[in-house]
Amino acid sequence: MAMEPREILERYNTIAVVGLSRDPGKSAHSVPRTLQAAGFRIIPVNPYADALLGEQVYRRLADIPEPIEVVEVFRPSAEAAEVARQAVAVGAKALWLQLGLTSPEARAIAEGAGLEYVEDRCMAVERAIHRITKHPVSG
After folding, report:
1. Is the pTM of this model over 0.70?
2. Does domain 5-129 have CATH number 3.40.50.720?
3. Given CA atoms 57, 58, 60, 66 in this order, what sign does their dihedral have?
């Protein structure tokens, strides 16, 4: 049985954000920033930046040298299927298409490979509704 968006946010900590924007006025920047402030590990994916939100930016998912749990997509719906293929290839656990994005093909690719799938939902809104905050582990 598929996980609800709340369960995905409760279970996973590391989110690779495909299309994280350089423009602080766009939701593709403010949503990941809000998630980062709530304690999530954000890994930006953007071919036109070197650092965003204080994190190193990677050009594509395959370049990220650590495990990815959730891939959040801030790219047009037409690009979602390709991002889904990449998410499967890197071993992500979930694919989340941001509010306004849908893709039957991306859903089929993700679910066919056993990934959790969410579309047309805002990750920051879901986090706020369910009051999900990650607490950094101090060592």
Report:
1. yes
2. yes
3. negative
